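TICKET: design request
STATUS: open
ATTACHED STRUCTURE:
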């Protein structure tokens, strides 16, 4: 018998325990092991009912995602779970599945092969396959509608969100919720069963057939350009049209289309990438960390307010400091408005909002800052001001407090030089809106302590963010690369592409927003001011983009002034502006820039490959630990579509020799790493 499966007995009840930590994935050996244990219990005359349960922290969290890559590469036969489920359903003895933690994907599918399902109250069940670009592939789309009803099943398969035990009970997925010890409860439940209802034989309950088109339209919006949600809906629809075996065949066809398509590879890369970034050489479980129980934030502007919300959302009290009462009131009013919006949308109750607001102490002084475990500076982006603040907090903060800067471009080492404790100084770069965006770039200075890095990586998790450790350079990883991307977007406009053409091409390709609309949203004046600060760093003779600054010179800062690359009405609705066309043409004529027709392909190549080329330089300099770290930064902080895997993974999919040829054709200096990998026929990700 497989060592991943344990068998035991409690009097007349046979028990099968899956023991494949950490999440009991259905790795090779697990399905066969369950099947063998099932057969052994069926053959045992003393056993009259069988319980299947997960060991450790969870029931089965699904198929082993690592196997999918091997299947596509022809190195593994993959998961064939259907025979196991049929064996469970056809068992002459009742099979009861006991769920704790999560029963996800193949885990829920296995559970639906049992005659009954019981769960602890905190358990969750779901079909999250679409999140990795797949659909349920082991009859989930066929059994779930028969248990949960068509509408809920289609929603669960199309959007991948798990549901809680109570909802699953009400929907008919579960038969009982067990209070107290799950195994004891499941064994008693098993003893009481004489029937063996087969989920696959259940009749589909009446439903509104319009639901499929409604969900297709919804998925088109929420999962733009993604194939798996549409395939999942088609598979559930097949369950309502075909007998069970034919439905399973249809599901398998759709599953394979997704598995062999490009999106699942990219989404699986993103899934493992998000976990990989937490692994930092030199930092392990034994690295000491500091407790973060009390925080302080300096600056109540957009970023400071969002950062404050992150802390209090996690139950950590914050002292929020501003320099004027007016700015403080404005910052607090914005926080209040954001929370009130969430309450109005039903995301949480007024009581929760009140609790969170009560955790914030707005103040004009540094009073109480000596109690803070972490002080985060989020003021205007200017080195002199930041150094002044760090010198001040150095004199106030308790020994061991972490001094963090939210700078998006400036040197952490220079900021740290204003203190007597550079080992405690670190960058925590949040992304706007800071209470929403998942990325937290954690910037390591030359002297930053390992315990400070480990604490901030843990803090990212506490704040429900994805922390990615980066090195110190101008703009770190994300903004250093976006600088190249925005530069190309501007050049394209100067050379003849309309702003809506550039934005349209990238939006259609999958970016959450085009680069010029993004500039308008963030405020074109932000970059304009930074460029003024860094004017001395410009390389003589090197072409610099001019159009954004030209717009700023004319008071067009973006949405906030009602005009930028586009014009905006009072509801911030965007429309192209003929005045902008005139400004661009005038600028091009003045600067001697030749204007021409620009293709969609050129727009995509110049913007997206500028990211990969700069990313390769960043990688080579060691500013990012791995190429996947760069991808995760772009997926979680810059609206890069997850189904394209990130800028480095995307370059890999194009083939690095092709990427290099284009980079050279554009006249850019190719990153030496790109040249090397292209010559060796390798990829960034491998
Ligand atoms: C499927 O089932 C298809 C079927 O229809 C059948 C087709 C035939 N496989 O997230 P964590 C690893 S598709 C392999 O940090 P948490 C993970 O990489 C699958 N590995 O823990 C990490 O490794 P490491 C459908 C997996 O407590 C470690 O386990 N199922 C898998 O924050 C801990 O993970 C899903 O999509 C896996 N399935 O969250 C569920 N799952 O320590 C995907 C996890 O080396 N999983 N690992 O970095 C999850 O959503 C979360 O992991 C879970 C736990 C909620 C379970």
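STATUS: resolved
RESOLUTION: sequence designed for all positions
ATTACHED SEQUENCE:
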């Amino acid at each position: 018998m497989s060592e991943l499966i344990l068998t035991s007995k409690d009097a007349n009840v046979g028990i099968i325990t899956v023991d494949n930590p950490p999440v009991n994935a259905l790795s090779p050996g697990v399905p066969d092991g369950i099947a063998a244990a099932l057969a052994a219990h069926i053959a045992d005359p003393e056993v009259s009912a069988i319980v299947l349960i997960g060991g450790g922290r969870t029931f089965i969290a699904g198929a082993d995602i690592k196997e999918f890559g091997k299947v596509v590469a022809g190195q593994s036969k993959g998961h064939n779970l259907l025979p196991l489920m049929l064996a469970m359903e056809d068992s002459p003895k009742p099979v009861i599945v006991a769920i704790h933690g999560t029963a996800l994907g193949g885990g829920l599918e296995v559970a639906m092969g049992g005659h009954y399902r019981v769960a602890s109250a905190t358990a969750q069940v779901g079909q999250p396959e679409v999140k990795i670009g797949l659909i349920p592939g082991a009859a989930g789309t066929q059994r779930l509608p028969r248990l949960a009803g068509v509408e809920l099943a289609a929603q669960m398969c199309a959007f991948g969100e798990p549901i809680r035990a109570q909802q699953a009970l009400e929907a008919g997925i579960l038969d009982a919720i067990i209070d107290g010890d799950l195994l004891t409860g499941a064994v008693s439940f098993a003893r009481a069963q004489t029937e063996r209802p087969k989920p696959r034989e259940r009749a589909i309950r009446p439903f509104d057939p319009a639901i499929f088109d409604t969900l297709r339209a919804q998925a088109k919006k929420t999962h733009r350009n993604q194939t798996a949600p549409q395939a999942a809906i088609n598979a559930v629809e097949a369950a309502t049209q075909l007998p069970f075996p034919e439905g399973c065949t249809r599901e398998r066809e759709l599953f394979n289309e997704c598995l062999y398509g490009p999106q699942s590879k990219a989404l699986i890369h993103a899934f493992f990438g998000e976990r990989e970034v937490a692994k930092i050489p030199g930092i392990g479980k034994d690295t000491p960390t500091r407790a973060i129980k009390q925080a302080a934030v300096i600056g109540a502007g957009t970023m400071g307010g969002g950062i404050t919300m992150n802390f209090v959302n996690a139950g950590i009290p914050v002292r929020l400091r501003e320099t004027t009462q007016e700015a403080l009131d404005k910052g607090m009013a914005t926080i209040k408005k954001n929370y009130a919006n969430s309450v109005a949308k039903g995301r949480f109750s007024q009581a929760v909002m009140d609790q969170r607001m009560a955790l914030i102490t707005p103040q004009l002084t540094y009073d109480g800052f000596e109690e803070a475990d972490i002080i985060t500076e989020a003021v205007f982006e200017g080195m002199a001001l930041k150094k002044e603040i760090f010198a001040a907090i150095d004199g106030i903060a308790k020994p061991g407090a972490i001094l963090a800067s939210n700078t998006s471009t400036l040197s952490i080492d220079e900021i740290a030089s204003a203190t007597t404790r550079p080992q405690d100084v670190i960058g925590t770069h949040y992304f706007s809106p800071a209470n929403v965006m998942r990325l937290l770039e954690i910037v390591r200075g030359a002297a930053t302590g390992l315990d400070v890095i480990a604490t901030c990586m843990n803090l990212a998790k506490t704040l429900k963010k994805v922390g990615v450790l980066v090195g110190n350079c101008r703009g770190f990883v994300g903004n250093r690369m976006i600088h190249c991307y925005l530069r190309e977007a501007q050049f394209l406009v100067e050379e003849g592409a309309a702003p809506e053409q550039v934005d349209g091409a990238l939006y259609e390709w999958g970016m959450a927003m085009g680069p010029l609309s993004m500039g308008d949203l963030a405020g074109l004046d932000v970059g304009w001011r930074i460029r003024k600060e860094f004017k001395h760093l410009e390389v003589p003779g090197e072409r610099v983009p001019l159009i954004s600054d030209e717009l700023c010179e004319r008071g067009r800062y973006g949405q906030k002034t009602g005009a930028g690359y586009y014009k905006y009405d009072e509801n911030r609705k965007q429309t192209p502006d003929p005045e902008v066309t005139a400004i661009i043409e005038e600028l091009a004529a003045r600067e001697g820039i030749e204007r021409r027709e620009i293709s969609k392909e050129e727009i995509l190549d110049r913007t997206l490959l500028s990211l990969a080329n700069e990313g390769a330089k960043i990688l080579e300099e060691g500013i990012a630990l791995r190429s996947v770290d760069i991808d995760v930064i772009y997926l979680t902080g810059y609206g890069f579509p997850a189904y394209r895997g990130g800028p480095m993974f995307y370059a890999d999919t194009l083939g690095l020799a092709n990427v290099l040829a284009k980079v050279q054709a554009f006249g850019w200096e190719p990153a030496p790493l790109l040249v090397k990998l292209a010559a060796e026929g390798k990829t960034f990700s491998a």
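CLOSING REMARK: The chain has a mean pLDDT of 96. The chain has four domains: 5-260, 295-470, 492-600, 604-680.
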